[in-house]
């Protein structure tokens, strides 16, 4: 399994512009034959392109310096130097780009094919023919090319998903995702099985939506404990949160689990905690006291949250839940 890397720092430099050329034609009766130096070529730029085939910033762990080609120098006979090739760097869709020095966001690549120039190439210098005037008919100087822009930038990946799965480790998120989509998360009965966000596409009739299973939250996540911050950044873009709660957990009441996770969300980002949530009670096949399910349903619906009880193992309740999610995602997208 590819390691999930969602932050990277890279150095980018646009190509320098080529120097202008000092040259003269060989003509009788014209001082020095007349100026004939061509301009230097423009340096290439460094351009980021969002690629839907990439899902991690792992490529930037080892290669961190990217330089575009410099422009060629001008030549005689007023020939302009060849421009440098642009350097195209592919990044995952959902990459936010910041200038390291200023901390300012330069751009946000949210759709496949989105482009962002992060270091412009320098302009080519003018050749001596550009400086000829009626009184200065044989200039013996030219301009040097301008240097290309250079800077360190930070890439930060925020997943693009319609629905984010939240809940304590072991709430059953990975099993649920593998049940409703073709995604294959690691599944085992211990916390933090999901060590990187996993995307899956769920389909209801002819409508599909993207679901992200993100590493489990623990108390203190907003302060960076566990996999906290790494997790929370990825749910920022989702339209809807599916809050999964293990109803078979004897150590924690559903209400308590719900309040603790929402407290973490609010401490990290009040905006995030205001996203619409659907509460899903999981592992009902392992619940011996069925009144616990009814009690949870009553509690969450009284708080204004839609509540569904499911078993990802037997499939009970899943079709009804998926249809409800699809309708809500359509509403959020304005479809």
From TrEMBL:
Region Disordered, annotated ranges: 65-84, 118-146
Domain Obg: residue ranges: 2-160
InterPro entries: G_OBG, GTP-bd, GTP-bd_Obg/CgtA, GTP1-OBG_CS, GTP1_OBG_dom, GTP1_OBG_dom_sf, OBG_GTPase, P-loop_NTPase
Residue span, OBG-type G domain: 161-330
Required co-factors: Mg(2+)
Annotated GTP binding sites: 167-174, 192-196, 213-216, 282-285, 311-313
GO biological process: ribosome biogenesis
Subcellular location: Cytoplasm
Keyword Metal-binding: yes
Binding site for Mg(2+): 174, 194
GO molecular function (one): magnesium ion binding
Enzyme class: hydrolase
Family indicated by similarity: Belongs to the TRAFAC class OBG-HflX-like GTPase superfamily. OBG GTPase family.
Reported function: An essential GTPase which binds GTP, GDP and possibly (p)ppGpp with moderate affinity, with high nucleotide exchange rates and a fairly low GTP hydrolysis rate. Plays a role in control of the cell cycle, stress response, ribosome biogenesis and in those bacteria that undergo differentiation, in morphogenesis control.
HAMAP family registered for this protein in UniProt: GTPase_Obg (MF_01454)
Protein name: GTPase Obg
Gene encoding the protein: obg
């Amino acid at each position: 399994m590819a390691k999930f890397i969602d932050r990277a720092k890279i150095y980018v430099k646009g190509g320098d512009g080529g120097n202008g050329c000092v040259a003269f034609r060989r003509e009788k009766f014209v001082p020095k034959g007349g100026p004939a130096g061509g301009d230097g070529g423009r340096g290439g730029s460094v351009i980021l392109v969002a690629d839907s085939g990439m899902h991690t910033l792992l490529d930037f762990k080892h290669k961190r310096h990217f330089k575009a080609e410099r422009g060629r120098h001008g030549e005689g006979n007023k020939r302009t130097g060849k421009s440098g090739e642009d350097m195209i760097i592919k990044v995952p869709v959902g990459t936010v780009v910041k200038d390291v020095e200023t901390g300012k966001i330069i751009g946000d690549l949210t759709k496949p094919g989105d482009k962002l120039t992060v270091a412009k190439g320098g302009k080519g210098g003018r050749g001596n023919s550009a400086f000829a005037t009626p009184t200065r008919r044989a200039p013996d100087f030219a301009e040097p090319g301008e240097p290309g822009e250079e800077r360190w930038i930070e890439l930060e990946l925020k997943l693009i998903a319609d629905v984010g799965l939240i809940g304590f480790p072991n709430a059953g998120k990975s099993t649920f995702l593998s049940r409703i989509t073709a995604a294959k998360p690691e599944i085992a009965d211990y916390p933090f099985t999901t060590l990187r966000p996993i995307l899956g596409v769920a389909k209801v009739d002819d409508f599909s939506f993207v679901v992200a299973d993100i590493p489990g939250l623990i108390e203190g996540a907003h302060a960076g404990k566990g996999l906290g911050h790494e997790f929370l950044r990825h749910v920022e873009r989702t339209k809807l949160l599916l809050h999964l709660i293990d109803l078979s957990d004897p150590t924690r009441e559903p209400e308590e689990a719900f309040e603790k996770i929402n407290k973490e969300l609010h401490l990290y980002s009040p905006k995030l905690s205001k996203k619409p949530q659907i509460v899903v009670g999981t592992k009902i096949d392992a619940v011996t006291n069925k009144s616990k399910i009814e009690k949870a349903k009553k509690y969450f619906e009284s708080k204004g949250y839609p509540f569904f009880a499911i078993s990802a193992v037997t499939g009970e309740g899943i079709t009804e839940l998926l249809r409800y999610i699809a309708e809500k995602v359509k509403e959020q997208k304005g479809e």
